[in-house]
Structures are given as C-alpha cells and as structure tokens.
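New to this. Explain the following:
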Amino acid sequence: WLFALAIAVSLPRYGQPGRQVSMSLRTQGAATRASVGRVASATALLARHRKGTITRMTHAKNKFALRSTMNPSMPGNPPPVELAPCPYTQWGAKDIDIDAVQADATSLPDFPLEISAKALGLSAAEEKKYIMENKQSILEKLQKHGAVVLRDFDLTKSPAGFRDMWENGLQLSPCQDPLQSVAARQTVSKSDGVFEAVNKPSLNRYFVGMHNEMVGTRTPKKAAFVCFKPAEEGGEFLVLNGQQMLRDLNPEFLKRIYTKDMRYAVAQFPMGFLQDQPEFLQNLLKPVIKSVLDLAIKQKVDFYTESVWDTTTNNGDLVLQVRAAPNPPVLRHPETNEPVWFANIHSHSAKLRDMRAQIYSGGDEGRDKTTGSSKINLTDVFYGDGTAISEEDLKHVAEVTMKNAQFLKLNQGDVVLVDNYKTQHGRNVFEGTRKNAVTWFE
C-alpha cells in the first residue's frame, strides 16, 4: 500500500490550470518536484516511441473521414462531449434564521413533477421537438419543484438519445463528475458524457443513502439520471425534497448542527496491522505513514483534508481516516435564495449505514466483494469541531429522511432531472442487472 501511495503522488490533480486551490495545497515539497520530473522524463520517452504509431493512426482517421464524407450511409458520430470542470460549491453567507424557516407554512410545490410523453400523446418523432419548444418551461419547473421526471420517452432509451435530449433539447452544459478528484466513476458512454450510477453487482445489496452530489468543494447545479435497464427487482431511484426536510427536523437539533457546522470523513485506510506491533514500532511508523498519506492526498484532491487516527468506525480496528473541512448543513439556493437542507448525514454516517445494512441487506452489503476505491471510500460524519453526533440525533435524521423520500420505479428511457442544491437522491437495493446512468451540469 505504501507503493500505491507513492504512485498516487504522480497522478494528475483535478481541474484545470488556474483553478482555485486551498492554502494547504499551495506548497510543493522536494520529493513531489522530483516525482514530477521523473514522470515528465518517462512521458517524453514514451512519446518518442509512440510517434510512429500516432502517425499511422492519424492516416487511418483521415481515410475514415474521407470515406464518411463520400458515403452518406456512414454518417460521422457527434464529437465527444467537452466536460467543463465541476463548479465550486456556492455556500453563501451563513445568515439563515432557522426558526423562521421552520415556521414557514407556505405550501411547497408538488414533488417530484412528472411529464409523460404518453399522456401528452407524443409520437417518437415529436419528442425532441416538444423538449426543444418547452425547454424554458421544463427548466423553470425543475427550479420550482426540485425534480422533474420525464416518462415514456423513446428518445432517451440510448446514451446517444439521452445526450440529444439534454444537449440539443434542454441545452444544458455538462461538467465533470465531482468524484473525479477522488475516484474514477465508470462511464456508460464516455464520448456522450454519461456516467454509471452505482450499478455494480457487488453493490446490489448496498442502499445508497440520500445525498446531494458534492465532493470537497465541488457541486454540480443539476443532474439528469436515466434508466437504460431497470433491475428485475428493486433498484428504485430515490429523491428527497430538501425544503421539506428543514421543516420536519427537530428544531433543537437543526439549530445545534447549523451553529456547530459538520464535517465528513471521506475515506479511511485500514491500519489494523499496526495494532499487533510493539508500541515503540507503532510510534515510529505512525508519523511516517501519516506523512506519506497526507502528501499523496494533497497531490490528488483540490480541497482541504486532515488525516486522523481512529478506532471507532471499523469494529475497533485502527484506521487512518481522511476528513474534509467543516461545512454548514443548511445553505441558500444559489439562484432562488431559498434555504435548503444540504447535509449528507443519511448517506455518510457510518452508524446509519450499518443500520440500513441490517434493514435492507440482512447485515451483509457485500462490500467484501468490492474492489478499488470502494474499499477505502467508507465515510462518516461529525460536528464541525470533530465531536460525534449522537445516535439519537442520527436516528432522527434517518426517520425524517425516509418519511420524505420518494421511491421512483423507472422504466427504460425514463429520466429524472434533479436540482442538486434543492433535492437529494439515493438508490434502493436490487436483484438482477440494473443500468442507470447520469450526466452532471454546471
């Protein structure tokens, strides 16, 4: 694992040149500079060896382009989607009056809103025209309601048609997956900017808790989730109204967590082997391991992190836990200024995750069969000062969350448009094969 961390130091960091970087990432050590130099030398050598191959590939591409132009039966595919960096989270000022929010008795819009091509009497040939002509209305409904379900559309049954819907119909601007800085999410169609949405057979018994898509300092404003194939059983897509959550949470708990802020543990590295070592060896190795891990993480992510030794979240086994900076659990919507619940407690709490495993999976979520980043991306949540949130409060959050969560059974081609600041999403356990996907937007 030390070798793996060393490799991670050489990996490219998230985003584009000139991006905002936290203070903790602005300095580079001599070891890092040396690593970058070695990578650059290796890259130059590889480029010389590949030069002839690239030239041959270019000739082949030019031949294909000529044949495609001359033969109308070989139309060229649309160019690959260009994904902008995922936007930075807009936290806004911390000026929300919790008492006033909870006292608001104004009726909330229907959630979610559904639009059915069948109910509208649209033929397959008319679907794209309908979306284009009603683009503004659909986007306004999305902002008002927080989620819009497009049902019975043939256009969106394939990745290319799904892209056509949001690119040419709704004219949305896609962005990179916010997970890109910490793990590479699998793609359904890389050229169309369509990412896989937790379909792994090894995670079919894992209930994806309710959350806003946010990693570190990055949050897409909108998302479009599509079903290409529903699971034989279960696998419903879940949505949750963040405004309703604010009204239903216990006032004392809500004011307490808003005052204290909250922070996430975003990953943990098993270090149980150290517990079997003599104390002097533990004291010798811990600072070295922590320093190597901190360096590797700072080269990989573009947000502040702190590594902490912990024995409370992994059945008493020692782990090195990576925690992000404190964030407010309630913020104002960046466009409507409405207060919304923006806290991933339901999805990130280790205790709630274990409780869901007992309810939905008989205690076995199948994580022992997972590979890659799924092995270390085990999360938890704390108050902003690092103290624990009580089990009573965590259970309260889970109760209010599941009372308001809407289970949506999607069929092939169904799409759920989500306002990512206003609406949380999740996924039920499933049996069989499931192929859902998502594209994120600025």
User: Anything to note?
Assistant: The two ends are 36 Å apart (CA to CA). The chain is about 35% helix and 20% strand. The longest strand covers residues 262-270. The mean pLDDT is 82.
